[in-house]
Amino acid sequence: MLGFVRSLAATSAALFFSAFAYGATGYTQQVAPMPLVDINNRGVILAASGPLAFLWNGKPDGAGGQYTLLSTPGNDPNVVYAGLSDLDEVVGGFTDFGSGRRLGFVSSVSGLELIEVPGAASTTVRAISPNGRYLGVQAYSELGTASSFLLDRNTGLLSDMSPTGSYGSAIEGVTDSGQVVGRMGTDAGLRSFVFQNGHVETFSVGGDAYTFLYGVSDAGYLVGSSGSTPPAPGGPEWNSGFVSHGAETWKFAQGTRILGVNSSGVAVGVYSLYSTHGVLLTPVPEPASVALMLGGLVAVFAWRARRVAPHGG
């Protein structure tokens, strides 16, 4: 069974239809009619709402692009689409109605690869690295305890990544180097963590009581939501989305949840406070960067002019 159904040329109805007028400076913001789940380093976007999902490859105004409809694994109306690699592999989880088991999957033009943690009651793939090598997998036991695993598809090694002392955890993002970010239950409540090279560090934004990480890029961008409100599964987002890079953090409007980011800092997510729609966030170059770029272009044009100028003699 193929994972993708077909590609269709973009019509006059663009995926992105208007701009956000509020939120963080430093980013241009656009909205889409359905949640945007992830974006890869090629700029391809995974959009999904329930069993309806597609990949969008094109400019935000719809010019010259195309979208690829995704088939629904197992025809499960409760399928979850969670991540996208640079190879356009889509990951998530669905219920196999034949066996009644919840299975993880990797869907691509080559077909459907099923993922299951041995002994688990249910399995969902929640993240995939850009190169497609690593999968962030969440598994539930028969008692309902959630554990996190990192699957190396090159070697088949499945590593338990559940932080020591945590009460359930979920991996939400993974890089090409195997760095993972996610959430865990602790005595102090839900906390976000960054796990690399055997070390676990908690992550929080400013003085916010709750921080939830949903994505990471190889360039060091982290995305999620933060604020004063505890999570409400299946309910609206009352906190504010953020993009963090080094010492800088950009906060967006209340009700946004940023789910994915690529190495250029372009991020996607969903707004779900009073309505539901997708959000696309594109970094605005700093004035110094623009000046440097323009200076470089001037130098190139001057060099070319000298090259083509006629010689006297």
From TrEMBL:
Record's keyword terms, sorted: Signal
InterPro entries to which the protein is assigned, alphabetical: Ice-binding_C
Protein name per UniProt: PEP-CTERM sorting domain-containing protein
UniProt signal peptide: 1-21
Cited Pfam families: PEP-CTERM
Lineage, opening ranks: Bacteria, Pseudomonadati, Pseudomonadota, Betaproteobacteria, Burkholderiales
Domain Ice-binding protein C-terminal residue range list: 283-307
Organism whose genome encodes this protein: Roseateles paludis
